[in-house]
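ENTRY TYPE: paired fold submission
RECORD: A
CONTENT: sequence, then structure tokens
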Amino acid sequence: MGLGSTAKKVQKLADLAEKMYKRINHMVEQLQDLRGTVDETGARVEEIERELEQHRTLLEAIAEEHDIDVDSAVTDAVIQDADGADPSGDAASPDDPDTAGAPAETTEDADGPSP
């Protein structure tokens, strides 16, 4: 084996090492960015949890003021969701003053309106 082939092998290894070094540095940068994103997301989640707790406290105070049992209301909502009720809340509810007494939606086809 001559010196020329050894020099080529050493150069090849040096090139490979440089590529690996660049890849590792790129991965380190990505990891640092990811850690920053995770930290920001964690802070947002904590803020949302604080707001949620404030909202929950406010809703419980309003419910108490109107003599509404929060636990039974939550239980009823869970049961309705399990029974396949409209989870979006778009359906007219007799308990909802905004939709109580609202006419049912109808569809219209070529033969005219249908109830």
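RECORD: B
CONTENT: sequence, then structure tokens
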Amino acid sequence: MRQLVSAACGLWMAAAATAQAENVVIVELYTSQGCSSCPPADDFVAELAAQPGVLPLSLHVDYWDYIGWEDKFAQPRFTDRQKAYARAVGSRTIYTPQFIVGGLDRVEGYDPDETVERLGRHRALVSPVTLHVERQGERLVIRAEASPALTTPVRVQLVRYMPEETVTIERGENAGRTITYRNVVTSWELLGEWAGTGPLDVMADAPGSEPAVVILQSEGPSLILAAARPDPVQKSESDAATKAIVSAKDAPPSMEAGFVGAPDRAPEADLSTSGGAAPSE
């Protein structure tokens, strides 16, 4: 992991001509209501959320449901995402709990000291990408620039989450426990790919009251170059921006424009697991 962080730091520092706006560091926690090792990590999310410039996100996986308690927040796509992270580093093992910091650093098990150390390294990185997100009613205005231009496209993703939910678990390894979960991810949507050779200026639907965050991430999945939560805008600014910006869903795919909207995508191929904390398939 230390080598990965060092490589990422070199990549960012070499690519950035000047310091950009503060980057929100994303910390993903892969967890399950059916995992007896997970509650301390679930509680740690609250501590991470209290830190400025940090956004922890809880992604509940479904591979512990067979024990006898079906995790009400689990989605197969979150299991697929965790497996994709494992494939990206040549691993065939996944764990709960597992923290992934900045899309790059993996911390298996509950290890707050290691997680905080990795978090500190990512907070010190300087990204070549600036990202700004504004809410306009039920839509988000997403603007980004890269200086210098990126050499490979990045994925533009929209994540929605519930700030806090308390669950009484009746069966499984955590039977009889009442646990409060924070920043529980409900959707992780790929909006499209941005080339990073020109400004990004698109809109995305984001109805409802659930908080949202936009994440720009290297293919893999790998390093998260930028993440931002929406800021409110004045009505006059909102009206002007609405006229000037084309919806990402309505815009025709165009590499010339630097953004290609995501087509309907099939689920990623499954990854067999063996050993570790995850059950064998």
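NOTES ON RECORD B: The radius of gyration is 19 Å. The first helix runs from residue 2 to 15.
STATUS: closed
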